[in-house]
Amino acid sequence: MALGRLDLFSGRFVYDPYPWLDALRSDSPVHHDPRTGFWLVSRHQDVRSVLLDPDSFRPDNAQNAATPLSVAALRVLARAGFRLAPALANNGTASHPGLRREVTRFFNAARVTAAVPMIERIAGELVQAAEERVVADGTCDLFSTFAQVLPCRVLMELLGIRGVEVSSLIRWSDASLELFWGAPTPQRQLELAEQVADFHRWLTEAVRDTAARPGSFTAALARHRLPDGSPLDPAAAVAACFFVFVAGQSTTGQLIATVLRTALTEPGLWPLPGHEPGLAEAWVEEVLRREPPVTTWRRVTARAVELGGSHLPAGAPLLLMLMGSGSDPEVFPHPERMCPRRENIRHHLAFGAGRHRCPGASLARTEAAIALRTAARRLPRARLTPQGTKAPMLGLLSFRAPLNVVIESS
Ligand code: HEM
Fold first, then answer.
1. How far is CA 66 from CA 18, 69, 407, in A?
2. Ligand 1: which of 358, 366, 398 to mutate, judged by most atoms within 8 Å of the beta carbon?
3. What is the pLDDT of residue 31?
4. Which residues 6+ apart lie within 8 Å of 26 measured at CB?
5. H-run or E-run covering 49
6. Ligand 1 — pocket residues by CB below 6 A?
7. pLDDT the model gives residue 163
8. With 80 as the cut, is the pLDDT of residue 66 above it?
9. 3-state DSSP call for residue 336?
10. How far is the CA of 240 from the centre of ligand 1 (A)?
11. Residue 171 φ/ψ, nearest 5 degrees
12. CA dist 388 → 16, 29, 141, 408 (Å)
């Protein structure tokens, strides 16, 4: 595999990244990619050590636009007052721990456990509708009718989000991912910027109107005090909401899509996760290791450092290949095999590690396992159609998943 031909946005990479990720790990574990300017870090041990050392490897570039935005797109965003003040993933300052605590309060283990009946109810409703559609039309796309919708509805319940259509939140969240993590043409940037501007206007209104929503996430942000005792300025509150609303739904929808797709294609597996205790959870874990929705994450060096035998200057942008690290044979024997009984099944880095580790991990895992169990139970004879088998893939700098999971059933 000639690494000189690597193009992270190409169909070749997006459809089958494994040979490239293997070559990176074995031939050039800290590899300078001339197309993007990133240093690609691919061994599990190196990725983990970067994540666990936030003083040397700062998170400041985590949300920078992967492709420079056109003046016209920037103008559309500016008109909506859009700016992403450091809040969570891109915040290496003293305000981060307190803001992060506000988020974890909404998604801690106790909250997620208490939410299980609600998640099961929504999953049941959506799969029943999918079942009816298969009966009526012969096929149904489990991505757009189920995988995408479940995390959005659950997030709205947990955060107390009201007064907005589920379809708008999904559209805005997907547009945000494509604008900031994709390689859109100038024309497409303009369309996406209009969506993101609408999202930002709605968030600004929601942050302003917190009195009407006691118990909501925006109300918690309004009460929040920074380390110096001052309240959060509205731009930082909007930035925190922006990240949580996007991170909390699109990524989980992508995970559910890959979980369903892999479970439907693995010989002999479907519909076992519907009944075998623990199998749905273990399958989700193996998907997170081998084919996670968040494929990479960014850091920037705070000073000159040595990493995996390479010398990096201060200010070097790093792209941590989370997906590649889950297939590192030094940590996971036979990484290409999906092994629900793998001993170190949770040692993957799909949710990051350390100070910025994903606070939504428990929710994402729970939703995906419930989604798989519910679909396997209610649609035991489902199989992918030819359209589902050849589904196009979302291929952004940090996000990858099938864009449809079309099934039929006998
Ligand atoms: C499958 C689903 C998900 C995946 C794979 C995922 C992955 C990640 C990753 C890789 C990070 C960066 C970690 C780091 O820098 O060390 C992150 C951060 C974050 N995630 Fe998730 N995430 C998912 C779902 C969620 C959900 C459901 C929520 C909220 C409900 C959420 C909220 C956040 C937040 C707020 C951060 C920033 C945390 C901080 O900077 O302290 N994520 N996530």
1. 22, 9, 34
2. 358
3. 97
4. none
5. helix 44-51
6. 51, 59, 88-89, 100, 103, 107, 243-244, 247-248, 251-252, 255, 292-294, 297, 350-354, 356-360, 363-364
7. 87
8. yes
9. coil
10. 12
11. -65, -45
12. 17, 34, 8, 9
Mean pLDDT score across all residues of the chain: 96
* 386 CA to centre of ligand 1 in angstroms: 33
- Calculate ∠ Cα 20-22-28, nearest 5°: 85
Q: Evaluate if residue 212 carries a pLDDT over 70.
A: no
Q: For residue 114, how far is its CA from the centre of ligand 1 (angstroms)?
A: 20
Identify which has the larger pLDDT, 324 or 215.
Answer: 324
Count the neighbouring beta carbons within 10 Å of the beta carbon of residue 10. Answer: 14
Stretch 322-334: mean pLDDT, rounded? Answer: 98
pLDDT surpasses 70 at 258: yes
Rounded Cα distance, 96 and 84, in Å: 14
Average the pLDDT over 115-136 and give the result: 98
End-to-end CA distance of the chain: 42
The rounded Å distance from CA 33 to ligand 1 centre is 25
Q: Using the mean position of ligand 1's atoms as its centre, give its distance from the Cα of residue 121 in Å.
A: 24
Contact 41, 53 (CB under 8 A): no
Tally the C-alpha atoms within 13 A of residue 227's C-alpha that lie toward its C-beta. Answer: 7
- In angstroms, the CA 204 to CA 197 distance is 10
Closest CA relative to residue 43, chosen from 328, 279, 323, 371: 328
pLDDT of residue 37: 95
What percent of the chain shows pLDDT beyond 90? 92
Return the pLDDT at 225: 95
Closest ligand 1 atom to 107 CA: 30
Report all structural domains of the chain as residue ranges with CATH numbers, in order of start: 3-409 (1.10.630.10)
Report residue 249 as tokens: 């739904």
Give the type of residue at 28: S
C-alpha span between 109 and 121 (Å, rounded)? 19
| Tens-digit pLDDT profile for residues 392-410 | 999 999 999 999 999 999 8
Cis peptide before 214 (omega within 30 of 0): no
